[in-house]
């Protein structure tokens, strides 16, 4: 009886331990989920922070064609731009942190949690199954024990009944025999119950021993190992959390070093010189103010304006040409007509600017127009070469088909040349001299000078009579007209490159990949080729580099060669070809 109570007590205690372990392991899973959520929120913060930093950097980037872009010539403004660029890279490192946190911790913990829950469920399922098994075995033992007890009592009662019947002389011999057989039967049943009970007891003791010394310890050991792996996994994740930050520190340090270097590159003296250079007017300082005698017998000589300092310094005086000299701006006097003084606005000849600023603007304009002329001439040269190829090989294309475009380009070039001459005249006016026939044209590209052989005389009214504005803005006057003479050279119609008579097969100097498809003409066999059709992504051999005309000569195989637009292919030259 005592043994049975002890067994029941142990079972209850074991059940309580399973409940405690179940609660503890569940709290461990919840801790991992909580830590994973913490890392996820940190990742979201990093992404948000990086986005805000990028937006901040973009917000303060100088706008195109704005005053901020002009100010980039100052070292302080360039340093600030470098800081913004470094800040953008700095934001990228926070995005890297977010990506690594997600891939190395959040994703891994999510997968591990799924495995952990499945393992925990399996272990507790095995524990409950073992408990149910031992409880079932205990119930069978108790049942056989009660049956054995009941059969023993029945056997005792049958034995006592037989003994009473045997002692009674009034009972017949048949009744006594019947009672004796009944007693024997009950004793046999009791003996069978005893055997059954003994078997169940042996079985239960074996199962109980296995339960407490093998099954349950193994389950507890697995739960312990599972819990230790969970704790170790959390530790690894925490270490990774720190390493993710540490990995970007070198690049973050470089960003900060870049900001420091940008700050150290600021040169106050250089910036101040830039300001002087940008706003240098070119005006001569005003002369001394003459004494005006208002004494007796003196004629009163009044100035143009008694209340205007600038006008009083620039009194109107007659010039030999009959024009009036304009009043010079006095330093630090504000111009009321502010709109007319904005850089980039005003007359085409920039006459609203001070001489030095006007000279710079005119020079910049001439350089821009010369670049456009160069571009048009390059395109014209390429079309001229193509026309030459068509003339030699009519089956490749109609030479007349390119004539309208050549005419259009020639007209554009003449128009641009006229613009250059006009601005050259204004520039000569500012610099106080005019270009002469013996003087080579100023600020013109060599290409422009070599395009025409016949000399042309261009009459350009560079200087026009311009009165001084009431508010004192700068103007210049010149009564005589200026004639600008520019010598223009003719260009040969065809380039020597296209004198492709009998020539040897050109060696391969590299390869190229077609970036876009190009519809050319079907190439001829041999070596007299024009354009060649290519498809996007096609690989070809390069046999002649672009010589400035915008065309590259390629070969598909031994019998297919031709020219393709350089901008349509990506060229990979061999090392010796690059060096040459």
Written description of the protein model:
With 580 residues, the protein is an alpha+beta fold. The protein has 10 helices and 7 strands. A 5-stranded antiparallel β-sheet has the order 6-5-4-3-7. A hairpin with a 6-residue loop joins strand 4 and strand 5. Helix 1 packs antiparallel against helix 3, helix 1 packs parallel to helix 4 and helix 3 packs antiparallel against helix 4. The longest helix has 93 residues. The termini are far apart. It is found in: Cell membrane; Cytoplasm, Cell cortex. InterPro entries: AH/BAR_dom_sf, F_BAR_dom, FCH_dom, HR1_rho-bd, HR1_TOCA, SH3-like_dom_sf, SH3_domain. Belongs to the FNBP1 family.
What is the string of helix and strand elements?
HHHHHHHHHEEEEEEEH
Q: How would you describe the shape?
A: elongated
Order of neighbouring strands in the sheet with most strands:
6-5-4-3-7
How many alpha or pi helices? 10
Rg calc: 53 Å
Strand content: 5-15%
State the end-to-end CA separation.
108 Å
Overall pLDDT confidence: 77
Number of strands: 7
Coiled coil: 359-386
Domain F-BAR: 1-271
Pfam family, one: HR1_TOCA
Region (Disordered): 302-329, 433-483
């Amino acid at each position: 009886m005592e043994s049975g109570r002890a067994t029941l007590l142990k079972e209850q205690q074991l059940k309580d331990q399973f409940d405690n372990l179940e609660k503890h392991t569940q709290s461990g899973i919840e801790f991992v989920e909580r830590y994973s959520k913490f890392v996820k929120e940190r990742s979201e913060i990093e992404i948000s922070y990086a986005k805000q930093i990028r937006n901040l950097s973009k917000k303060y980037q100088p706008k195109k064609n704005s005053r901020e872009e002009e100010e980039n010539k100052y070292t302080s403004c360039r340093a600030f731009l470098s800081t913004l660029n470094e800040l953008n890279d700095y934001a990228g490192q926070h995005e890297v942190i977010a990506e690594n946190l997600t891939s190395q911790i959040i994703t891994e913990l999510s997968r591990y949690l799924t495995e952990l829950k499945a393992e925990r469920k399996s272990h507790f399922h095995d524990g409950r199954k073992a408990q149910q098994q031992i409880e079932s075995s205990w119930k069978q033992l108790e049942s056989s024990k009660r049956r054995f007890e009941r059969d023993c009592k029945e056997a005792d009662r049958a034995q006592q009944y037989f003994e009473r019947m045997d002692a009674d002389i009034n009972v017949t011999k048949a009744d006594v025999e019947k009672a004796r057989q009944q007693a024997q039967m009950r004793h046999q049943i009791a003996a069978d119950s005893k055997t059954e009970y003994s078997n169940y007891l042996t079985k239960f003791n074996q199962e109980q021993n296995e339960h407490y010394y093998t099954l349950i310890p193994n389950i507890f050991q697995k739960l312990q190992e599972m819990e230790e792996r969970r704790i170790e996994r959390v530790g690894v994740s925490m270490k990774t959390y720190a390493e993710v930050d540490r990995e970007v520190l070198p690049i973050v340090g470089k960003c900060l070093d870049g900001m420091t270097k940008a700050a150290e590159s600021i040169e106050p003296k250089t910036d101040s010189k830039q300001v002087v250079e940008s706003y240098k007017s070119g005006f001569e300082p005003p002369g001394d103010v003459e004494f005006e005698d208002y004494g007796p017998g003196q004629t009163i000589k009044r100035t143009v304006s008694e209340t205007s300092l600038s006008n009083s310094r620039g009194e109107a005086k007659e010039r030999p040409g009959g024009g009036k000299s304009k009043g010079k701006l006095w330093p630090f006097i504000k111009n009321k007509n502010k709109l007319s003084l904005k850089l980039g606005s005003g007359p085409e000849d920039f006459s609203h600017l001070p001489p030095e600023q006007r000279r710079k603007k005119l020079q910049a304009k001439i350089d821009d127009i010369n670049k456009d002329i160069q571009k048009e001439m390059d395109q014209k040269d390429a079309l001229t070469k193509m026309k030459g190829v068509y003339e030699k090989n009519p089956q490749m294309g109609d030479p007349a088909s390119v004539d309208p475009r050549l005419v259009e380009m020639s007209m554009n070039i003449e128009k641009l040349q006229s613009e250059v001459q006009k601005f050259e005249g204004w520039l000569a006016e500012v610099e106080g001299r005019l270009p002469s026939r013996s003087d080579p044209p100023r600020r013109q590209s060599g290409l422009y000078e070599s395009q025409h052989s016949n000399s042309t005389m261009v009459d350009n009214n560079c200087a026009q009579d311009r009165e001084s504005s009431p508010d004192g803005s700068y103007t210049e006057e010149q009564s005589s007209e200026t004639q600008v003479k520019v010598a223009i050279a003719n260009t040969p119609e065809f380039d020597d490159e296209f004198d492709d008579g009998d020539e040897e097969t050109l060696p391969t100097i590299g390869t190229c990949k077609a970036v876009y498809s190009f519809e050319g003409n079907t190439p001829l066999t041999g070596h007299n080729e024009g354009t060649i059709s290519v498809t996007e992504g096609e690989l070809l051999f390069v046999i002649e580099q672009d010589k400035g005309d915008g065309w590259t000569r390629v070969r598909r195989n031994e019998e297919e060669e031709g020219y393709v637009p350089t901008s349509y292919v990506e060229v990979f030259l061999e090392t010796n070809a690059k060096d040459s």
